[in-house]
Design goal:
The structure holds two protein chains of two kinds. Chain A is an alpha/beta fold. Chain A is 34% helix and 14% strand. Chain A contains nine helices and seven strands. Chain B starts with a strand and ends with a helix. Classes of the chains: A alpha/beta, B alpha+beta.
Chain lengths: 257, 430
């Protein structure tokens, strides 16, 4: 049987999910022997942009170039996996998608910079969006960054044709399992555990730090209940919205006011 | 014969950039097309305590660098003092970050250039011991970051303004000592390898810049910014050095917006300058001590930017040795969970700088009365180095434009030179 052909790609991002793959120091050479890595620009030369079985794609679509690249990758892969919260949800870079890009360009690059960006015939800069807004995504591995453990488990599942099993419950379940004191209810902290998908074994609450939602929202999250708890603890709606906005949890908060 | 050379995508570097060279029109462009994420805008209006978790996501390899610099900037703004324990734990995780970053760069990204292969897989084929050393060092750096940072090496969670969420267990630190001692030796082996590789002549940057260590020993922490002008004297030469306070960093990094690059360039006196391991070792290598001094004495290092690889190898020795010292000190002072300092909010400004894997990193924040961020300025080492990298490529083009095989030679040397700078393109754009 021929080895699966894979490609590892990054759009605009911090490269944290690609780095998570490179951080599998004990498994890296073994991984490389099990598959044919056709493209991994961050880690190898001699890349071939050809038809592949699996594409792992990190980052958000933030430029026209990102979008073209994503579509081009989709056109030649059987399976496309979104790795990391940016690729899955848009992540932190999407937190100000309400603002016109020109305003952001002016803030960071000044008037001269704005002129340079305007000089491009079509707008080069796009609001930061997740992959699923543009192409079919076959599997999503959230996490900021994606957890090494989940990457390895899913990678093995692919190789063996096993069923892929990622958590689909909220962070609170994991937090209870490690017997942490509840930061939200008992200590009145602004913890997003109830509305965030599990997978990190409640890393932050285990360090006395409230969850900021870096894995993205859990299915059917009860935003209203979360907001009501926070309001009754004395948090202003503006702060709640801002904190939920870090990783683009977008409930309609009017209903719970 | 084609007069245009195009490197569509520079490989084995973090982030997205390419090179366009037109031999006829004499154009050399280091094109940085990584999308901007507008971090300086994203943090605008955020509360002071929300900034570190946002800005550490500028870059994964450098997340600990941004995290610490961000905390230092906030502490500088509000006048927060940190304990000896916090200082040491931070330096320990920072050295862990150095081990991971230099380990990744030297063995996975740079070494293939000198062994004629494509990746770490080829390195493992041709020089199994070297690959093994590299992966071990990298893994150790990650483990240190996991232990101190709260269980993951990227985007650490455990660092707080004024302290830590939870301090590590004593036995976790003790367990690192054996491997760190091995890492010192492995670093020396790495230095021996990188001292033997063939370099080629490259235009040397006119200026080097690094933070001056606070005491009389080499350190990644410094008080003032030093800029040294190219001289043949080698190490730190007082007469040729200009010194600036960190809050005056804009006098050193004069930023310009460039049409072909989403990352701004920084110039000093209108000229490109270089920051990074090579700048640190060339300017302050005489302050190295112990095994890292042995490593330095063993090799010949010059201002050629390709020697940045060798300088990073020497820093692997220093970082490992420093981790051992810090662990001993931490065990001596008997670590305990500390309450985080209380401080007054108020309209204020903070600036901090830190020597991080790729050079000097600057953060600057301004806050209103309620602690909301009203202005941010971040200058990363790769953004500083871009002008010098572009100049280096221009030098290669000048040297080889008449050769019959110029396209191949220019392409290959350009790749090697750019990789030697260990660019972090995501950081440079941010």
């Amino acid at each position: 049987m021929s080895k699966p052909r894979i490609g590892i790609y990054g759009l605009s991002s911090c490269a944290g999910d690609q780095l998570t793959i490179l951080n599998c120091e004990d498994e890296l050479l073994e991984i490389a022997s099990q598959v044919e890595i056709k493209s991994f620009i961050m880690a190898q030369t001699g890349n071939e942009e050809t038809s592949i079985d699996i594409a792992l794609v990190e980052g958000t679509v933030s430029t026209k170039r990102d979008l073209e690249r994503l579509k081009e990758i989709r056109s030649r892969t059987n399976i496309l996996v979104a790795i990391g919260t940016c690729a899955v949800w848009g992540g932190m870079y999407a937190m100000r998608n309400d603002i016109p890009r020109a305003e952001m360009i002016r803030c960071v690059y000044g008037e001269k910079g704005l002129k340079y960006f305007d000089a491009a015939s079509e707008p080069e800069v796009l609001p930061a969006e997740p992959l699923k807004n543009f192409v079919k995504v076959d599997l999503s591995i959230p996490g900021c960054p994606m957890e090494k453990k989940w990457f390895l488990r899913i990678f093995k599942s692919f190789l063996h044709g096993d069923v892929i099993d990622l958590p689909n419950f909220s962070l609170c379940s994991e937090c209870k399992m490690v017997e942490n004191e509840c930061l939200l209810v008992n200590r009145g902290l602004l913890c997003l555990g109830p509305i965030t998908i599990a997978g990190c074994k409640a890393r932050c609450p285990s360090h006395n730090i409230p969850c900021i939602g870096c894995y993205g929202p859990v299915d059917e999250a009860n935003y209203a209940a979360e907001v009501n708890i926070l309001l009754s603890s004395g948090y202003a709606i503006e702060e709640i919205k801002r904190k939920m906005g870090f990783f683009v949890f977008n409930p309609d908060l009017k209903q719970s006011q | 014969m084609s007069r245009e050379i195009k490197i569509e995508h520079i490989c084995r570097v973090e982030g997205h950039g390419g090179v366009t060279i037109d031999l006829e029109k004499d154009i050399v462009k280091l094109e940085i097309f990584e999308g901007s994420r507008f971090f300086e805008f994203l943090v605008a209006g955020k509360s002071y305590d929300e900034i570190p978790v946002i800005v550490c996501r500028i870059c994964a390899i450098c997340s600990i660098s941004h995290m610490i610099t961000s905390l230092m900037t906030i502490e500088n703004a509000f006048g927060i003092q940190i304990s000896k324990q916090t200082m040491l734990l931070r330096e320990l995780i920072h050295c862990g970050g150095m081990l991971e970053s230099h380990g990744l760069h030297l063995f996975c990204l740079a070494a293939p250039d000198y062994l004629g292969c494509n990746s770490i897989v080829g390195v493992a084929d041709k020089k199994p011991e070297l690959a093994n050393i590299g992966l071990k060092l990298k893994k150790l750096g990650n483990r240190i970051q996991e232990i101190i940072g709260g269980g993951r090496p990227i985007h650490p969670i455990n660092l707080r303004i004024g302290g830590f969420g939870k301090i590590p267990e004593k036995h976790e630190l003790l367990a690192l000592k054996n491997e760190l001692e091995m890492a010192v030796n492995d670093g020396i082996k790495a230095a021996a390898f990188f001292s033997k590789i063939d370099t080629f002549p490259v235009d040397e940057p006119q200026y080097f810049s690094a933070l001056k260590p606070v005491g009389n020993r080499f350190s990644f922490y410094g008080k003032n910014i030093c800029v040294s002008e190219n001289s043949n004297s080698g190490f730190f030469n007082e007469n040729k050095v200009e010194e600036f306070e960190i809050r005056d960093y804009r006098k050193v990094c004069q930023e310009v917006v460039i049409q072909h690059s989403n990352a701004k360039h920084s110039l000093y006196n209108g000229k490109p300058f270089m920051t990074g391991a090579l700048a640190r070792v060339m300017m302050f290598g005489n302050m190295l001590y112990g095994r890292s001094k042995e490593a330095l004495d063993m090799v010949r290092i010059t201002r050629n930017p390709l020697c940045n690889n060798l300088a990073q190898a020497i820093e692997l020795v220093y970082a490992s040795q420093r981790c051992l010292e810090i662990i001993d000190e931490l065990l001596d002072i008997r670590m305990e969970n500390e309450t985080l300092p209380v401080f007054q909010l108020g309209k204020c400004t903070g600036t901090a700088a830190l020597e991080v894997p790729r050079g000097t990193l600057y953060h600057h924040y301004e806050f209103d009365e309620s602690g909301k961020n009203i202005k941010t300025d971040i200058i990363t080492p790769t953004a500083i180095n871009l002008a010098s990298m572009e100049q280096g490529v221009r030098g290669i083009v000048e040297l080889h434009r008449q050769d019959a095989t110029s396209v191949e030679v220019i392409t290959s040397k350009t790749g090697m030179l750019l990789r030697a700078y260990d660019p972090c393109i995501s950081c440079s754009v941010h």
